[in-house]
Amino acid sequence: MEVRHTTHPDDFKKYDTEALRKHFLIETLFEQDRIHMTYSHYDRMIIGGAMPTEQALKLEAADTLKTEYFFERREAGFVNIGGTAVITVDGETHTLARLDALYVGKGTKELTLASADASNPAKIYFCSANAHAQLPTSKMAIDKANPLHLGSIETSNERTIYQFIHEGGLQSCQLMLGITILKTGSIWNTMPAHVHDRRMEAYLYFDLNADARVIHLMGQPEETRHLVVANEQAIISPPWSVHSGAGTSNYSFIWSMAGENYTFKDMDIVSLNDLK
What we know:
Layout: E1 2-4, H1 9-12, H2 17-24, E2 25-26, E3 35-40, E4 46-50, E5 57-58, E6 74-80, E7 85-89, E8 92-96, E9 101-104, E10 111-115, E11 124-130, E12 138-140, E13 146-150, E14 159-165, E15 176-182, E16 194-195, E17 199-206, E18 214-220, E19 223-229, E20 233-237, E21 244-247, E22 252-259, E23 268-269
C-alpha cells in the first residue's frame, strides 16, 4: 500500500509537474492478479484497483492500517469497469456486470475479488473510508442507480451522473460514490468548477482511448494547476481544490467522496470570473 500525505495549499503553489504527479496522480491501478492500493491522508481514504484472472484475490489489511482485517474499522464501495466480476463477502457471492456497484460495510472479515471469465477479466475499482457503524452489504446495478442528466451539447458538458452510494441510495457511514458518463461531443466534466472544503474527492478516469487524455484542473480557484491523465488513472483531489477537467474526447469517471457532510449538494460553486 502506497501512502500519500496531505499538502498545504501554500506549498502546492510551489509544485512543478513532477511533484504534482507524485502527490496527486495514481498511475497504476489494474495489473493482472494484483491489488494496488493508495492510502491518502485526506480523510483517510484508500483508493484501489484489482484485475484478477486465474485466481481470486483476497483484500487484506496492509501493515499501514495496523488492524487485524481490512474492514475492521472501514467501509468500501466497489465498481466493476471490466468483464463480469465475482466478489465474495464473508462467504456470500455477488456478481457485478460492467458498471455495477457494491457497498461493503464495517465488520466484514473476508473479501475476495475474482473474474467470471479469465479471458475477459474484471477490473474492480474501490474506495474505502473510515466507518463508525455496521451497515449491510448491498449491490446496485447501474440501471437502478439514480440518474441526473446535466449540461448540454452547446456547453460541451452533456452528461449523466449515476448516484450509487449516497443518502438516497446505498447507505454508508460517510462514503459517497457514483459514475459520470459524458455524451459524445462533450468533454467538460464540470464547469463552472466547485470546491467542497468539507470533503475530499477521488476520481478514476476511464473509457478513454489509448491516445486520448483528460486535462484535470486542480488547485485553489484563484491559482489553478493541471495534470494530464490517461485511461484508468486516478486523481486525489484535496478539499481546498477545484476538480474539473476536459478531455480530448468524451470519457467516463468514477467519483468518490469522504469527509464531513453526507450530501451530494454540499458544494461551493466557483464563478468563472474568479477562476484563474
